Request: fold
Amino acid sequence: MSRNQYTVGLLFLIAGAVILLGKIGFFSFIGTNFWPLFLLIPGILLHVLFFGRLLPPFVLIPGAILTINAFLFFFCIASGWSNMQYLWPIFIVSVAVGLYEYHLFDTYHPKLPRTLAIIMLLTAASFFVIMLVWGWGMYLIAAVFLAVGAWLVVGRKARW
Reply:
């Protein structure tokens, strides 16, 4: 058997396997469920290259954004995209984490990224609180009223 026949036969085997895997839905499953890897791998790679002293500290900002958002997308793929209505402030948190990493690992420790990170984190936290009050707020207010009423009725001695 010549070398060319072996190579052509191997190429036919690979092509057949790819076609078969495509027909049974393997690639669509991978593309549907694991596409956040295209965000996670560059995000982790930016961190690795920075800590390997190959890139400057500002690459930590997009690295953190990509990594955190990839995990958010994996969570939404696993639990349903309807959770994004509550989890969207994590996009703001990812930028805040990137800015704080930049402040933390830059040799000069610039104060502006830390200040921006704190402002963005407080903004995201306030959005989380607003969403909790907006969605679950009435239940929370009702529970507080019930607890205060029960404490007033049962917890204190009768005054009359």
